[in-house]
Amino acid sequence: MTSASPPRWRSPFVRLVIPATLSVGLLTSCESAQDKLVRGFMETKACNGCQLVGARLEGAVLPGAQLRDASLREAQLARANLRGADLRGASLAASDLRHSELQGALFEGAYLTGTQFQDANLEGADLQGARSLESADFSGANLRNARLAGSRFFGPAGPYQRTERSHFYSVPSGGASLPRVDLRSADLKDAVLAYCNLQGAQLQGAILRDASLEGADLRGANLLDADLKGAQLEHALWVDGTRCGPGSVGRCAPEKP
Fold first, then answer.
1. Tens of each residue's pLDDT in the chain, 257 residues
2. Which of 33, 77, 31 is nearest to 51 (CA)?
3. Euclidean distance between the first and the last CA atom of the chain, given in angstroms as a whole number
4. CB-based contact 236:252 (threshold 8 Å)
5. Contact assessment for residue 109 and residue 89, using Cβ atoms and an 8 Å cutoff
6. Which residues does residue 244 pair with via DSSP β-bridges, in sequence order?
7. In angstroms, rounded to a whole number, what is the distance separating the alpha carbons of residues 140 and 121?
8. How far apart are CA 153 and CA 76, in angstroms?
9. Is 76:59 a contact under the CB 8 Å cutoff?
């Protein structure tokens, strides 16, 4: 008579097998509302009116993106390709667009307080009617042939401070920073550049007719063939460091000692 085999030991833990389709669904369901928006935007390149505050889109390739009236405050867009993007009415306050590609982008009605455009390519971009340009940083940016007529750049701007908590740059009070900016052939008619830092700016052939450059720092700037007819230059620092005195309209009349 054969003895009964001893019962096999079984683990009290049950192995749960989740089908692949269900696991993907579970992961997707864990996404935040903004994550879903970002994913959809990356697929369609369209997110008009979206809330993308603080979104991380560094290096994203999104030429022709549709972001009209979108909220992109404090968004991380450094090195992004946004050529020809429609950013009309968008809020880009304190967003990071350093080294980004923005050729031909539309910024009409956009909020640009404290936006970081350092070394960005904005050639041919339309910033006419852009709002709140104070404290925006265009250091080293390419704004050749950009449309900036009537734009208001208030100055002077203070340094940007990076914080450990948010990794965003705090917005200083003051105006736009434009040192070493390339504004060759840019349309700056009626623009307000009072007290702005334009040291070393390339302004060859720029249209500065009736622009306000009162108190602006133009030391080292290249103004070859620039149209300064009617431009207000009182208290500005001229290309050679001369302080422009009262009556400096269209030309720098050195301040009398």
1. 555 555 554 545 445 444 544 444 444 456 788 788 889 999 999 999 999 999 999 999 999 999 999 999 999 999 999 999 999 999 999 999 999 999 999 999 999 999 999 999 999 999 998 988 878 999 999 999 999 998 888 644 443 333 333 333 333 334 588 999 999 999 999 999 998 999 999 999 999 999 999 999 999 999 999 999 999 999 999 999 999 999 999 999 999 88
2. 33
3. 125
4. yes
5. yes
6. 254
7. 9
8. 23
9. no
> Among residues 86, 92, 89, 121, which one has the least CA distance to residue 105?
86
Task: Give the contacts of 155 (CB within 8 A, at least 6 positions apart).
Answer: 174, 175, 176, 177, 193, 194, 195, 196, 197, 215, 216
Q: What is the distance between the alpha carbons of residues 162 and 237, in angstroms, rounded to a whole number? A: 30
The two tokens of residue 1 are 């008579």
Nearest to 169 by CA among 37, 87, 74: 74
Query: With helix as H, strand as E and coil as C, how does the chain read?
Result: CCCCCCCCCCCCCCCCCCCHHHHHHHHHHCCCHHHHHHHHHHHHCECCCCECCCCECCCCECCCCECCCCECCCCECCCCECCCCECCCCECCCCECCCCECCCCECCCCECCCCECCCCECCCCECCCCECCCCCECCCCECCCCECCCCECCCCCCCCCECCCCCCECCCCCCCECCCCECCCCECCCCECCCCECCCCECCCCECCCCECCCCECCCCECCCCECCCCECCCCECCCCCEECCCCECCCCECCC
